[in-house]
C-alpha cells in the first residue's frame, strides 16, 4: 500500500497540495474530467494489408486493453457509466444462463455473491470489534495494576473467581495488585498515591506514543475518525490505500492503544472505518465488486452500518446511520443487505461476549419509572445545551485543526499527541470520574440507583426505604452525592475542553463516546437537581399530582441518557438514527419521546448557529470534493456563467472525429493538463460527437504501437463508425470509437445552475458539456460546481482540492 503523494501526467503551474489525514495528495491535474469510455481497446492485428495493398483499419475490439475504463487515484468515478457497465454485465449473464446448466449455476452464484459478501463482512467486523473491546478493556486496567493469576486478565475478570470480594467492594481482591502495591508494598499513604499516579501517566504516554508512531510509520490514513473520508469515498471519490490491508491492521492495533491511553476519544467512529476496510478487502474476492466502483460503494454503505452495529450493539440504528449520515447512493437492495450484515455482525459480537454481561455494549441499562409530561421541559433544556455545545465544539475544533494545518504544530504530530496525553493523564488521575474509561463513566451515569449500588452517585439516605429495589422512592442525597456532583462538574469542563484539541490528532479518534460523556454528565447533574427539588418541594404546583412523597418520580439516569443523545446530536446532527441507537442501547422503548424531543431541539439549535455537522466541517476543511446533498442552492446563475472556457479564456480544446493524426493528438496531450476531451465533427462546425478520456487515449495509442507494426505519428485517428478508404502505402489508421462515450451528458447554456447542481448530485456526474443550438460551447466539471458553491457562500473557491 502506498500512501505517498501521487501526481498525474501533465501537471500545471498550480502545485498546491491537499492533506488527507496525514498523507499528502497532489491534485495538480486541474481539469477534473472523468474517464468516460467502454472497457474496450485497440489490439494489434497480424495482417494489416489487404490484397490490393491498402492498409487495413486498426479496429480491434476483440479483447479489452488493460487499464482502459479504469480510474486514476484521487479522481471521482462516473456513476452513470458504472451503472451502465453493471447492467450490461447482468444482461450478458442472464442471456447466457439459458444456454447451459453451468451458465445457470454461474448466474445463481452471481446473484448470491452479494449476500455471501455481507455474511463475510459481518463475521469479520464482529470478530475484530470483539477483539478491540477485550484488548482495550484489559489495557485500560493495565494503567492501574496487574492480575497475579494471569496478566491477561482485566480487573473485573481477575476478581470474578475470588472468594474474598464483598458486594460493596466487588473490585477489591487479593489477586489484583495496584502498581504501588507491587513496587513499594503498600496501597496507603502519599507515596503509594504518587507511585500509582506516575505509573498511570507513564502507561498513558507509552500507549499514545506507540499509537502515533505506528500510524506515522506504516499507515498515515489510519488516523482520525475516518467518517469524513468514508463519506467522500462513498460519494464517488477514489483514495487508494485508504481502505487497504495496512490501514486495517494499523487502525485496529492503534485504536486499542489510543483508547487505552485515556485520551478523550472513542472507538465508534474508527470502527466504521475498520468495517469499511474489511468490506473493501473482501470485495476483491468477487469479480462483480472488484471491477465496478459503484457496486463496491453499495457494499461500503452496508459496511458503515456494520461499523455502528458493532460499536453500539445497535443493528437497526447502524442501518439508519448509514442511510441518514454517511451514504450518497442507497438503493433499497442495499438497505436489505445492510440489515443482514449488521445482524450478522451483532450476532458475532454477542457470541464473543466481550464485556461478560451478555450484552453488546458496556452501558446497557434499564429504567423502571415512567416519565411525566412536565419532564419534557428539562429534556428540551438538555436539547438546547446539546445544540449549543455541538455548534461551539465544531467551531472550536475546526479553528484548532486549521491552526494545526497552518502552523508549526502540524509538523510535530508525535509531540502534540504526547503533550495532550500528558495533560489528559495528569489532570484526569485525581478525579475518579475522569480516571476511569469513558465507557465505564457513561455506564455509571446511565445507571438507575438501587439499594446495593456502591457508587458515590447512589449514596442516598435510605432510612425510610421499605420498598423493593426496583421501585425506590426519591430520597434525600447524602454527602457523597454532593461530592460526586462537584467532581462531575469539573469532569464536564475538562471533557469539553480536552476533546476540542484531541479530535483530529494523528491517532484513531472517534467522537461518539466523548460527546455522549459530556451530555451524560450534564444530564445526570440536572437529573439529581430535579430529583432533590421534587423531594424537598413536592407541594409545588409543577410536582403536585404526579410526585407525591414516597413516590419514584425522577430518574437521574434517564436525564443522563437524554443529555447524551442531545450532545451527540448537536455534534453529528443525526436525528432518526440517533434516537434508534439510544433506545437500542438502553432497551427502553417508552423513552423514545424524550429522546426525540432532545434530538430535534439539539439539531434546531445547532443548525441555527451553523448548518454543518462535524464531519461536513472536516470535509470542507480538508478540501475534499464532496457535493453536499443537504445544502440548498438558491443563487440565480446560469450554466454559461459557470462553464469553462470563460470569455477571456482561450477556446475549448477539442478533438475532431476524423482529421487528426496520432502525432497531433500526442502533441495536444503533451501541451495540456486536461483529463479528457470532447470530440466534435470539425473545428468549424463544433457539432458534438462524444467525449474521450485522456488516459484511455494514451493507453490505446501505446498499446497499438506495441502490438501492431505501422502505427506512426502520421497515422490518422478516427472516432467515426465508418472510415473512408485510405490512399495506398499510407500508414494504417487507428480507430478509437470504442473508447469514446457516445452519450455524454449535455445541457444548454441557459440552464439554471440550481438544476445543473441537482443533476450533478442525483446522477453523480463528473462533468457536463454545454451546448447552444447543438454546437459545443464549454464544459462544467464537478470541481467547477464546488468552486461556484464555495464562492456563493463567501468561501475561498481555491480551497476545493487545493488547500
Description:
This protein is 51% helix and 6% strand. It has helices at residues 79-96, 101-142, 155-160, 179-183, 190-218, 227-234, 245-260, 268-283, 287-290, 293-312, 315-326, 332-352, 376-406, 413-428, 432-435, 438-446, 479-502, 512-536, 556-572, 576-586, 592-609, 614-622, 639-642, 662-671, 694-707, 753-763, 782-792; strands spanning 17-20, 23-26, 145-147, 176-178, 655-656, 660-661, 676-680, 688-693, 716-718, 734-735, 746-748, 767-772, 775-781. Strands 5-7-8 form a three-stranded mixed sheet. It has a three-stranded mixed sheet with strand order 6-9-10. The protein has a three-stranded mixed sheet with strand order 11-12-13. The protein is built from 27 helices and 13 strands. Strand 1 (17-20) and strand 2 (23-26) form a beta hairpin. It is mainly alpha-helical. Helix 2 runs parallel beside helix 7, helix 2 (101-142) packs across helix 12 and helix 10 (293-312) crosses helix 11. The model is unreliable at 1-62 (pLDDT under 50). GO terms for molecular function: antiporter activity; ATP binding; chloride channel activity.
- Summed over residues and divided by their number, the pLDDT gives a mean of 82
What is the molecular shape?
A: elongated
What is the count of DSSP helices, taking H or I runs of 4+ residues? 27
Distance between the termini: 24 Å
Main beta-sheet strand count, sense and barrel state: 3 strands, mixed
User: Measured on Cα atoms, how large is the radius of gyration?
Assistant: 31 Å
Helix content: 40-55%
Low-confidence segments: 1-62
How is the largest sheet built, in terms of strand order? 5-7-8
Structural class: mainly alpha
Total DSSP E strands: 13
How large is the share of residues in beta strands? 5-15%
Subcellular location: Endosome membrane; Membrane
Membrane topology: Multi-pass membrane protein
Protein name: Chloride channel protein
Family: Belongs to the chloride channel (TC 2.A.49) family.
Amino acid at each position: 500500500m502506498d500512501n505517498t503523494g501521487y501526481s498525474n501526467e501533465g501537471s500545471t503551474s498550480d502545485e498546491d497540495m491537499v492533506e488527507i489525514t496525514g498523507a499528502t495528495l497532489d491534485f495538480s491535474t486541474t481539469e477534473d474530467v472523468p474517464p468516460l469510455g467502454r472497457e474496450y481497446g485497440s489490439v494489434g492485428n497480424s495482417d494489416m494489408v489487404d490484397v490490393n495493398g491498402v492498409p487495413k483499419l486498426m479496429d480491434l475490439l476483440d479483447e479489452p486493453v488493460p487499464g482502459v475504463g479504469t480510474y486514476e487515484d484521487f479522481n471521482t468515478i462516473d456513476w452513470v457509466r458504472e451503472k451502465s457497465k453493471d447492467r450490461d454485465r447482468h444482461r450478458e449473464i442472464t442471456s447466457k444462463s439459458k444456454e447451459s446448466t453451468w451458465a445457470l449455476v454461474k448466474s445463481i452464484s452471481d446473484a448470491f455473491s452479494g449476500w455471501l459478501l455481507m455474511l463475510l463482512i459481518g463475521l469479520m467486523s464482529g470478530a475484530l470489534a470483539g477483539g478491540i473491546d477485550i484488548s482495550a478493556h484489559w489495557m485500560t486496567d493495565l494503567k492501574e495494576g496487574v492480575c497475579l493469576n494471569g496478566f491477561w486478565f482485566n480487573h473485573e475478570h481477575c476478581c470474578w473467581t475470588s472468594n474474598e470480594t464483598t458486594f460493596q467492594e466487588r473490585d477489591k481482591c487479593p489477586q489484583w495488585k495496584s502498581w504501588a502495591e507491587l513496587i513499594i508494598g503498600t496501597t496507603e499513604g502519599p507515596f503509594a498515591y504518587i507511585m500509582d499516579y506516575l505509573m498511570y501517566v507513564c502507561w498513558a504516554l507509552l500507549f499514545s506514543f506507540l499509537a502515533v508512531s505506528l500510524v506515522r510509520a506504516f499507515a498515515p490514513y489510519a488516523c482520525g475518525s475516518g467518517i469524513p473520508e468514508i463519506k467522500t469515498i462513498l460519494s464517488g471519490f477514489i483514495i487508494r490505500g485508504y481502505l487497504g490491508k495496512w490501514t486495517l491492521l494499523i487502525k485496529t492495533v492503534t485504536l486499542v492503544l489510543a483508547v487505552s491511553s485515556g485520551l478523550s476519544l472513542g472507538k465508534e467512529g474508527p470502527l466504521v472505518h475498520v468495517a469499511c476496510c474489511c468490506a473493501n478487502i473482501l470485495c476483491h474476492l468477487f469479480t462483480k465488486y472488484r471491477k465496478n466502483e459503484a457496486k463496491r460503494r453499495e457494499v461500503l454503505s452496508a459496511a458503515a452500518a456494520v461499523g455502528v452495529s458493532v460499536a453500539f450493539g445497535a443493528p437497526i440504528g447502524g442501518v439508519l446511520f448509514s442511510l441518514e449520515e454517511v451514504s450518497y447512493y442507497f438503493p433499497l437492495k442495499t438497505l436489505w443487505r445492510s440489515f443482514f450484515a449488521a445482524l450478522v455482525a451483532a450476532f458475532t459480537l454477542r457470541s464473543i461476549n466481550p464485556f461478560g454481561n451478555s450484552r453488546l455494549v458496556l452501558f446497557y441499562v434499564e429504567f423502571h419509572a415512567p416519565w411525566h409530561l412536565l419532564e419534557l421541559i428539562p429534556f428540551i433544556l438538555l436539547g438546547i445545551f446539546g445544540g449549543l455545545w455541538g455548534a461551539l465544539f465544531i467551531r472550536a475544533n475546526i479553528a484548532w485543526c486549521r491552526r494545526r494545518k497552518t502552523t508549526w504544530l502540524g509538523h510535530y504530530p508525535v509531540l502534540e499527541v504526547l503533550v495532550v496525553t500528558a495533560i489528559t493523564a495528569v489532570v484526569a488521575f485525581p478525579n475518579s470520574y475522569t480516571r476511569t474509561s469513558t465507557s465505564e463513566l457513561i455506564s455509571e451515569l446511565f445507571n438507575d440507583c438501587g439499594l446495593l449500588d456502591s457508587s458515590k452517585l447512589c449514596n442516598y439516605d435510605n432510612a425510610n426505604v421499605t420498598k423493593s429495589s426496583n421501585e425506590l422512592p426519591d430520597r434525600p442525597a447524602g454527602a457523597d452525592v454532593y461530592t460526586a456532583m462537584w467532581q462531575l462538574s469539573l469532569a464536564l469542563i475538562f471533557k469539553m475542553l480536552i476533546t476540542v484539541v484531541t479530535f483530529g490528532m494523528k491517532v484513531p479518534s472517534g467522537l461518539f463516546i466523548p460527546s455522549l460523556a459530556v451530555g451524560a454528565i450534564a444530564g445526570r447533574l440536572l437529573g439529581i437537581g430535579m430529583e432533590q427539588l421534587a423531594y424537598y418541594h413536592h407541594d409545588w404546583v409543577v410536582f403536585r399530582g404526579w410526585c407525591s412523597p414516597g413516590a419514584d418520580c425522577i430518574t437521574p439516569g434517564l436525564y443522563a441518557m437524554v443529555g447524551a443523545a442531545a450532545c451527540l446530536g448537536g455534534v453529528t446532527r443525526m436525528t432518526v438514527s440517533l434516537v434508534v441507537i439510544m433506545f437500542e442501547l438502553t432497551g427502553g422503548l417508552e423513552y423514545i419521546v424524550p429522546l426525540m424531543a432532545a434530538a430535534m431541539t439539539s439539531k434546531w439549535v445547532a443548525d441555527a448557529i451553523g448548518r454543518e455537522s462535524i464531519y461536513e466541517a472536516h470535509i470542507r476543511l480538508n478540501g475534499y470534493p464532496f457535493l453536499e446533498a443537504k445544502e440548498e442552492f438558491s443563487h440565480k446563475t446560469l450554466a454559461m456563467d459557470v462553464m469553462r472556457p470563460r470569455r477571456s479564456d482561450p477556446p475549448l480544446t477539442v478533438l475532431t472525429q476524423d482529421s487528426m493524426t496520432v502525432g497531433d493528438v500526442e502533441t495536444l496531450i503533451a501541451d495540456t493538463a486536461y483529463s479528457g476531451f470532447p470530440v466534435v465533427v470539425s473545428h468549424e462546425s463544433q457539432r458534438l460527437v462524444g467525449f474521450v478520456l485522456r488516459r484511455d487515449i494514451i493507453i490505446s495509442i501505446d498499446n497499438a504501437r506495441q502490438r501492431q507494426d505501422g502505427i506512426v505519428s502520421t497515422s490518422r485517428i478516427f472516432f467515426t463508425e465508418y472510415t473512408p478508404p485510405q490512399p495506398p502505402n499510407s500508414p494504417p489508421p487507428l480507430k478509437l470509437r470504442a473508447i469514446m462515450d457516445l452519450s455524454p451528458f449535455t445541457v444548454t447554456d441557459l440552464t439554471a445552475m440550481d438544476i445543473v447542481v441537482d443533476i450533478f448530485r442525483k446522477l453523480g456526474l463528473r462533468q457536463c458539456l454545454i451546448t447552444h443550438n447543438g454546437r459545443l460551447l464549454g464544459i462544467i466539471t464537478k470541481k467547477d460546481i464546488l468552486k461556484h458553491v464555495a464562492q456563493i457562500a463567501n468561501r475561498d473557491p481555491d480551497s476545493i482540492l487545493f488547500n
